[in-house]
Every structure is written in C-alpha cells, then in structure tokens.
Design brief:
CATH superfamily of the largest domain: Type I PLP-dependent aspartate aminotransferase-like (Major domain)
Order of helices and strands: EHHEHEHHEHEHEHHEEHHHEHEEEH
Number of strands: 12
Number of domains: 2
Radius of gyration: 21 Å
Strand content: 15-25%
Bound molecules: pyridoxal-5'-phosphate
Length: about 350
Amino acid sequence: MIDLRSDTVTRPTPAMREAMARATVGDDVYGDDPTVRRLEARTAEILGTADAVYMPTGTMTNQVAIRAHTEHGDRVIMDIASHVVRSEGGGPAALAGVTVHPLMGDRGIFTASQLRDALGVTHPGSPTTLTPPATLLTVENTHNGGGGSIWPLELIDEVVAIARAAGLRCHLDCARVWNASAATGIPPARYARDFDTVSVCFSKALGAPVGSALAGSTEFVARARRFKQQFGGGFRQAGIIAAGALYALENHRGDLARDHEKAGHLADVLVSIPGVELVREHVETNILRFNVPCAAAHFVDGCRERGVTMLVSGAHSVRAVAHRDVSMEDVGRAGEVIREVLEAAGR
Ligand SMILES: Cc1ncc(COP(=O)(O)O)c(C=O)c1O
C-alpha cells in the first residue's frame, strides 16, 4: 500500500530504533529523564527560546498553550481551517473555556485587515463588557488545512505586531516548521522569534514515532508543565520515545526538501488529469489538497483497491501527503492510479 494519508504514518528507521533502544531514561514526571531533558534543550536551542517541554501530541501542545495563555471566557483569534478549530476535538471550549473567533483565511492565511476587523474598535459609548476579551492570536505555519501553505514572513510580522499592539499574546502552531524552513531557507528560530509560544511536532515529516514540544520563556514553560500534567501528559520513561524524536531532529531535517519534490511531482501529474482541480503553485511543501469531479469517498475507495490510500476531506476534496516512507516511484505510481480511477469514474 502506498500510504499518502499523512506524514504521521512514517515508521522509525533501524538507526532511530537503535537510538531508542540505547536511550538512558528516568521519570519525566520527576523531571529526571535525561533524554527528555536533552530533547527539550535542543528544541529550545533550535527555536531560539529559553525552554521547551516535550508532550505526547501536537494537540496537547496547542491546548496547553491556549489553556496557559487565557482565562475562561477569553477570545482566541485564528484561521477557521486551523488544526485547533477543526481537529482538536473542541479542546479550546472544553479545556480552556474560551471562545474561538475564526477568521476566513485564504489557504489558512488571513490578512492584517481581517485581524484588525476582528479586534474591533473601542468607543466610550460602547460597553467593553459585551465582547469577550481577545487575549490570544494563534497562527498555523505551514497550514495543514490550507494544503501545506507557508505564511509569508512579512505578513507574520505584521499580524503579530497588530496583535501585540492590542495586548494579545501570540502562539504559533508550527507543527511543520521543519517543512516551512526546508522550503524557504528561513530558520525555525526566525519563524518563532516574535511569538510567546511555539508548538513543533517530531512525529510528522521528521519521522519520529511520538511527540511534540511547546517552547517559550522559562516562566511560561514552567506553567505549561502544570497543564501538561493536568491534561494527563506526564509520561514517565518518555526518554525511549524522546530518543526517536531527538534522532529525527538531528538527522531527518535535511531530507524534507526531497519530500517537497515528491509532492511537486505528484502535483505535476495531477494538474495533467482532466477533472482534477489543483493549483500547482499552491503545492509549496509536502501536502496536496485537490478536488475530484466524482464523490471523494468513491474516488478514495477506488484508489485504495489499487494500492494507494489518501484521505477524504470533503464531498469532492482529497488530501495526499508526501513523506519519507514513500519514494518518488511510489508517488509516480500513485499518479497513475489516480488517473486510472478517474478515467473509470468518467466512463
Ligand atoms: C498543524 C497541526 N497542528 C497540530 C497537529 C496535532 O498533532 P497531533 O496529531 O500530534 O496531535 C497537527 C496534526 O496533524 C497539525 O497538522
């Protein structure tokens, strides 16, 4: 099976497993797992932050960040298709008791004027108690729902400056910062620079089996550790998996440009297939989101029968993700299968 559902499906390599088997471990809840500590220190170093905390999932890092930055009833502004809105089980409302104020971005990227409008204007005649106070801005880069889109750095700088001027804190969901950096050459620390907190994932394109980190100031990370425990994320001899994450961080970042080439190759094939809707220039990293002229469920089932699996993401929309466990040949074969299935559906 050529599995293009996600870059999370990658398996640890023999060298990564070896590193995991050799890991020295302690009890992470007591703060004495040396491999977890090394992973946290290295992550903070790469992101240019004072500290970082290792957690089981990217969802937990985002939810802990929102919980730690806000009070119940606050308003958190983010793109409507962001992972936090669509794929975190309603966490902001359930866990932090906040209102999400979604902005209608273009492939996950909203404008400075949309943010200004969302922040609104103050006037002595308008009671300030009506509107939930906006206290946090969240940006997702690369944007999963937007098809792996990359935020232009100038726009990030602009929206963060607007948020800061209005007194908001800023969180960056940079689960795939490694892909953004591989595509643009902009270092992760520059993407992270003006945010209070940054989430990164090791278990996606980097190929580690488990884990994410939330990075920020020493004080913030100390507070985040409290919520990590409260949300059930104290995970004892986590050094075993942290060793996989550390291995991925040190050895796999250089491979991501190749994943982007694979995604680009698949995109080249897709734009040549009648009926497929995909803007070639929109494929900037490893994620492709495209529309098919038949029911996406029927299309995906047909591809699966022929050995290629992808995700249904709407009535006619499909997601395919290139990653380190598929080859250029696999991606070429996937293109052929997609063409065959759509030809059969059109008959
Ligand atoms: C942008 C983004 N943030 C957060 C997550 C959540 O990561 P996890 O699956 O580890 O909870 C994902 C997962 O795909 C994601 O794409």
